[in-house]
# Entry
Amino acid sequence: MNDSILNLIGNTPLVKANRLVKNPNVQLYFKLESQNPGGSVKDRAAYNMIKSALERGEINKDTRLIEPTSGNTGIALAMIAGIFHLNLELVMPENSTVERVQTMRAYGATVTLTDAEGGIEGARDYAEAKLKDGDHYMFNQFANDDNWKAHYNSTGPEIWNDTHHKITHFVSSMGTTGTIMGTSTYLKEKNKDIQIVGVQPTDESRIPGIRKWKEEYLPKIFKKEKVDRILEVSEEEAKLTTIKLARQEGIFAGMSSGGAAAAAVRLCEELESGLVVSIICDRGDRYLSSDLFDV
# Structure
C-alpha cells in the first residue's frame, strides 16, 4: 500500500521491442513513462520542481503559479499542485488536444490558451509577460535545475540498474531537455562510453513534445556537450512509428514517443551490437481527438 499517489512516480518498467528491430545483435528496450500516475515522464520533473520550491520557501498556498506548457508538464503540475492545494495557471497553444486541456482542468488548474500560430514560444512569452507584473511565480521548466535533477536522481539510476549496467545507448526526444540532461549526467558518471542520442524534428515538421529551438528560446538547462549525437525525424516518420508501436508492440503512446522510437530503431539497425533504451514519454489516449491515429 502507498500513502500517496506521489509515491507511484518513477520506477517505470522497461519492455523489450520484439518486432520493430531486425538486427539480431542489438536489443532495444522502451522505458514506459506512461506508467507514471499522471501518465507521462513529466511527473518526475513536476514533482521535483514543486517539492523543491516548497522546501526552499519560494512558494506557498497563496502564491499565484503560472507555467507555459505543451501538455504533459502541465498535466503533471496540475495533478501535483492540486495535492498541495496550490493555485496554478497553465498556458498553452489553442491547438493543443482537448484531452490535455480537459485533464488539466479536471485536476483543478486554470488553463489559458494562446494563439496557435505562436506555438509554445507564444505561450512562454505570455507567461513571462505576466511574470513581470511581480505577483506570479513561474517554475520555468526550461531553465530550472530541478527539472533535470529529477532525472539524475531517478530516471538515470533506474535505467542503469534495470539494464544491469549493460546499456550502451540512450535515446530521448528533446523538448525542455530535462530528461536527456539529467539521464545523460548520471549515465556518463557510471560509464563515459554510453552514447546519448537526442531526437529533434526535421525542418518544417511539427511533433508535439519535440522541438528544434531557435537560439533565443533554447532551454537554459541544455548543455550540448552532454549529447553525443542528434538524430532528426520527420513528422510522417514519427506518426508511422507511433502507429507501429501500438500495432506491433502493444505500446499506446504519443507522437514524441514515436519520434524517439523511430530514431532508436534507425540507430539499432546501424550498430554492430548494443543495448539501447528509448523513452516512451506518455500515453496515446491524449491524442485521440487529433489525426495521429488516422490511417
Summary: The chain is about 35% helix and 15% strand.
